[in-house]
Amino acid sequence: MSNRFSGDTAAENTGTCVYDGQEVVPLFRYYRNSGVSKDGERVVARLENKRGVVAVVDLMTNEVEEFYISNCTARKYEFFPNDKERFVYVGADYEYKDVPQMRDNVIWNLYSFDTQTQEKEKLTSYTEPGRRISSYGICPAGENIVYSVSLGPEIRDGRIIRIIDLKTGKTEELSFSAGSLAWSPNGDIIAMVGVVVENGEVVEYGNRIIFYDVKTGQYERLEKPGGDKAYLWEAALTYSPDGERIAFIRHENNGAKTLWTMNADGSDRQLILSEGYYKGYLSWSE
After folding, report:
1. CB of 189 within 8 A of CB of 215?
2. The predicted structure's pLDDT at residue 104
3. How many domains would you assign to the chain?
4. Per-residue pLDDT tens for 53-72?
5. What is the CATH number of the domain that holds 224?
6. Number of CB atoms found within 10 A of residue 206's CB
7. What is the span of the domain harbouring residue 181?
8. Residue 236, domain member (yes or no)
9. Which long-range CB contacts under 8 A does 134-137 form with residues at least 24 apart?
10. Which pLDDT score, from 0 to 100, does residue 30 have?
11. Across the strands, what pairs with 212?
12. Would 244 be classed as within a structural domain?
């Protein structure tokens, strides 16, 4: 494949690697939760060995910039689609030196960070402790973000999906409890892994890949190939730049994490990588 994935590698040598269609190439040790720019020229990642530090790497020149962001967390980092100088991250209301013992007391929000001005901007406005943001995806135009937020510390498995308009600050709530959010390159579809919820009640049990049509409000819920017990679940969905394929991680019954791709409609699933690598957040670049 001419495209490549960027994600997390094995535990002992944790960091960012690239799969180029033939082999896995380690890039940066200690760089985790990484995201790659749309053109594949820049990587943003949290440094495992430096608390509160986020690195941006120019893959064309190997130049590395490090930024101290006091409230950064161990969630993914994602560039705006058409702006390699700005990225989104999940921030919390503590500094690393003051990390509370109980994370249920932490307030989580989405932030953007400008590498030129080194200024951060809060994108959401949660004030209640325990509202953890676990996943998000930026629309291709960069005007909206879909994200998953928990209902509170007392409901650990309850999550809701919201779309925020970055210009107006208005939010729309979707009828799903899900994570692993990804926006298709044409902006029409939001892919996710979760369940369907109506009036606060789960109506279709079992975590499944769901395709939500942003324009019509309709959705398609995929069945698991091989039946409910064939594997545990899928995660870390990411679209190819042309929108024709989706890469994802499959959590197997034996605890392994395998890397797969499939067509954008869920057909033609192909195993790409099996054992040997810890696979976390994924990005697919040109």
Report:
1. no
2. 61
3. 1
4. 999 999 899 899 999 998 88
5. 2.120.10.30
6. 12
7. 28-229
8. no
9. 134/75, 134/159, 134/179, 135/75, 135/76, 135/178, 135/179, 135/180, 135/181, 135/192, 136/76, 136/78, 136/88, 136/90, 136/110, 136/181, 137/78, 137/181, 137/182, 137/183, 137/190
10. 63
11. 190, 219
12. no
